[in-house]
Amino acid sequence: MNGSFGDPVLFLVRTLFELLIFVVLIRYFLQLFRANFFNPVTQSIVKLTNPVLSPLRRILPKTGRHDLAALLVALVLIVLMVWVLASMKGLPISGAALFVNALYFTFLMVTDLFFWTILLRAVASWIGNTQSPAVALLEDLTDPLLRPIQRMLPPLGGIDLSPLAVLLLIQVLQITVGNLLLG
């Protein structure tokens, strides 16, 4: 894949992988954070992921609030994404490089998931859309991250600055981990 055609194809392949991984990670975190499974958006995510996760649960049962099947599927998809993207670029990838890159992309995917859910929740609150099932899902996913910051950082003039603080923290963590893992 040389020339100008290679980049859009890589972008599309990566985007498709990331969308699949996001859905599986959302399913994992919904279980972990004990989200409302009666929410219609949550039920859609469950219906999308059940065909893959249900058979795996016979081998990997849930342990407490951790859905090991969802976690395994997300990790396998991340490793597959790293390998496919490296192959499409024509780069040989060793086992160690695959492991480090998969570890980094796992971290990126989790932090990106929370970055976007927090950002979407903040935008929804600004436009006054706080009663929809999608916003309720965003609240279920972000409350465990925002609550500790909200206790330390009270609202200023009625404005909750905890989303901004968490978004900045996520960015700092991504830069720091990227520098440590990828040099």
Automatic annotation (TrEMBL):
Gene Ontology CC: membrane
Transmembrane segments: 9-30, 68-86, 98-119
Keyword Transmembrane helix appears in the UniProt entry: yes
A Pfam short name: CCB3_YggT
Keyword set includes Transmembrane: yes
Family: Belongs to the YggT family.
Protein name: YggT family protein
